[in-house]
Amino acid sequence: MDILSLFVIVPLITILGLVFTRNLKQARIVAMLGSIIQLGMSINLVFAYFKERAINEDIMVFTRDMIWFKQFNIYYSVGVDGISVALLLLTSIVVLAGVFISWKMYDLPKEFFISLIVLSIGVYGFFISIDLFTMFVFFEIAVIPMYLLIGIWGSGPKEYSAMKLTLMLMGASAVLLVGILGIYFNSDADGGALTFNILEIAKVNIPFEAQKLFFPLTFIGFAVIGALFPFHTWSPDGHASAPTAVSMLHAGVLMKLGGYGVFRVAMYLLPEGAIDWSWVFIILSVIGVIYGAFSALKQTDLKYINAYSSVSHLGLVLFALLMLNKTAWNGAILQSLSHGFMTALFFALIGMIYERTHTRDIAKLGGLLKVIPFISVVYVIAGLASLGLPGFSGFIAEMNIFVGAFQNEDVFIRVATILSVAVIVITAVYILRVVGIMLMGPVKNEAYLKLERVTWYEKSGILLLLIPIVGIGVAPLWLSDMILESLQPFIQGLI
């Protein structure tokens, strides 16, 4: 059994174990053990990757092929580079943290954890796939459980939010499928056989007219799940209605499929189309960065604040990818990782605060630093990382993005970069505004003086997410070098 397929098989075994559980205690132990094994696998993969890369200069390592549909040349093809490895590590950490944060899920716990693990299978499979069809199948597997997770275990207008999310993402999937089929039917442009294999298609000179047609379809198909403006509206409502662990996976992992798909498929396979269309999507991504920040500034619900903040931060990822240079792309991947840990941590903390105070309205909160100091201090740290303070992962990511973007001498791009940089000020305002209202000052409600203390499983979930935020900020070079090395084959297609 190859090392990558275990990322699909182990979660499937975990689901099988969950099927036979009888109560909450058994369900959470099985889910926790399965998630710990997955985290151990991803850590082992990091070391195995460095060892393999020392002797293997292929674009992807640990590649495996197994015929699936011979008639259409569809294979179960897997492989990873440094970018895939980093995102697999992110996924395993967020999944385990989500299990800890859902420790007290009393309502249909077995079904909840099964749905959560199914979502993780889709994400793992997406990141290891190098066959477009297989990648699309895993993409759908990741998206479908969201409807159940929000519709059954959510709160507020959960049916509306679940339906809105599902319809918009399925609509994007339909557009994406057209783009993928367009790439497939042009993969024989140099006289070879039709193929879905990404590495094989990259060797083909797809006609410019076909690239112009299918790049926007592929870009939009992936970027909708990455909160591209104006197709982002599913995200805030979905976050607000989702249970805590689902919000963590939704923002921390699921939305990363968008940027990764844009990079791995749209940019790599359709580089001339990317150059031709870049100005359109640069405008949309910058609008998303600015709009998300100002929208977060106006919100009073903690989940909506974090949701619109995600729209802004992920707009930076798309903006960086459209810069079409190595430094900005490095920043885009680092921003994806940083945002994944950061926003999952935010949603975990918001869930803990809501469980204790029964409100997410910052106007009704106050003085929480005095009564739940651990949660409050970690919230401040997450906020400082979000606004890009040196020493945290957000600073490393944003510096690479802005330096890479400003390397381009085009006036249009430099103006777009300045606008994006200016949003850091707005981010600081809404982060410090929440900290000031919610954590500082006198305790507004006497009932808050008796709030429940932080439990061991909550601390475990928080520390799993906090350590990488600080670790990447303090010692980023090993991760940055791994990403930069993997970017080289992709950037060559744009030179």
Automatic annotation (TrEMBL):
Organism ancestry: Bacteria, Pseudomonadati, Bacteroidota, Flavobacteriia, Flavobacteriales
Any Pfam family the entry gives: Proton_antipo_M
Catalytic EC class: oxidoreductase
Membrane spanning residue stretches: 6-22, 29-50, 74-100, 112-130, 136-153, 165-185, 213-232, 253-271, 277-297, 304-324, 336-355, 367-392, 412-440, 461-479
Organism field: Gilvirhabdus luticola
Protein name: NADH-quinone oxidoreductase subunit M
Family note: Belongs to the complex I subunit 4 family.
Keywords for the protein's UniProt record, in alphabetical order: Membrane, Oxidoreductase, Transmembrane, Transmembrane helix
Residue ranges constituting the NADH:quinone oxidoreductase/Mrp antiporter transmembrane domain according to the UniProt record: 130-419
